[in-house]
Each structure stands twice: as structure tokens, then as C-alpha cells.
Write a structure and sequence with these properties.
Layout (H helix, E strand, L loop, with lengths): L4 H13 L10 H17 L4 H10 L4 H6 L6 H15 L4 H12 L12 H12 L3 H14 L23 H12 L6 H25 L4
Helix pairs in contact: 1-3, 2-3, 2-7, 3-6, 3-7, 5-6, 6-7, 7-10, 8-9, 8-10, 9-10
Length: 216
Amino acid sequence: MRFNSDLIDVLEIRAKERFTGARGSHGWDHVQRVYGLCQLIGKEENCDMTVLLASALLHDIGRHECDNGNGAKCHAKVGAKIAEEMLKQEGADPDFTGQVTHCVSTHRFRGDDAPRSIEAKVLFDADKLDSIGSVGIARAFLFSGEIGARLDDPDVNPDDVEPYGPDDTARYEFLTKLLRVKERMHTKTGKRIAEGRDKFMREFFKRLDDEISGLR
């Protein structure tokens, strides 16, 4: 499919409008980083770049509703419905719309549906890569601050943590999600990028443990 830059430009404007007042951990800058990673990975994985970049712009447009409900709703499912309506309004082809909504609905790490198309797999990888490495560490602490969680408590059992509660710390995110991101990569390019980010992240949290314990 020929790249449709006009549609991408329109979707960028419309998607950005939905991030007014968004939390910093899932703000428009996150979308921009995912978009950039999709450009990088998508070209190497021979993707339909219009489908992929449209999906990157729209992948978190349901996040606001999720945050307002403290995670009660799946932002990927909500976002897919919003994306479908937006694409219909822009006169997008039904097949194209279906490809994009599949990408959006399956990009969540804790989601029930696995990405099937190469574009959906690339979006999944790009979104998860932004959750590890130095940026991922920064976002994890930013999110814990946004919800009023404490800095750290190594003695808390992860099984006892309430989402969006005081123990939903960056360490909790590291133990329950970020440690597993590398092994969940779908693409060769995603796996390669994840190696360095994962290594840095593990070293950081090991050092954090040492400093909290007074070993450094």
C-alpha cells in the first residue's frame, strides 16, 4: 500500500488533541517515542507503514478513560473503538480500519489478545521498548509519583499490591512487568533493541537495592 501521508498528518492532529491533561507517564511524548520506534522497526520488518504509523498515533487514545478509572477499563479496547470511529470519520477503507484497530486492541502487555499481523507485533514491541531502559525507569518512577505511591519498599510482597495504591511502586512494575518485557518481543529488531535496554534496567534496580540497603 502506498504511504498515505495526508491521513497520518490528520490523525496526528486529532490524536494529539486527546492528550490534553494526560498524565506525564503516558503523555504525547510517549506516543512520539513509540512512533519513532515504529519507523525504525517497521522499515526493517517490511511493514505497511501507513497502517503501522496510524496505529502508533492512535494506540493510547483510550488511556485517559483508563487512568480516570484507575485501570478498571482496558485502554487498548477502549482505544480501538475510538480509533475505529475516528477512521470512519476520515473516510478510511474498512479493511485498513480493521488492521489499525487490531494493532491498537492488541498492544497491551497485560491484554488477553495477542498481536497477529506484523504491524501489530511491531507496535507491541515499540510500545514495550518505551517501558524499559532509561526511559522506562523514568516513566516507572513518574507513574508511581502520579498515583501517590512511595519511593520504594523492598519488603512488600508483590502479590499483596493494590493497583494504583501506595505500594504500586517502580520496583513493583519492574518485578511484575518490566523484567519480562525482553522475552515478550515479537520481532528480530525489537529483540535486538531490548537487549541493551534490559541490561541497563537490571543494573539500575540492582544498584537501587544496594543503595537502599546501605551497601553503597
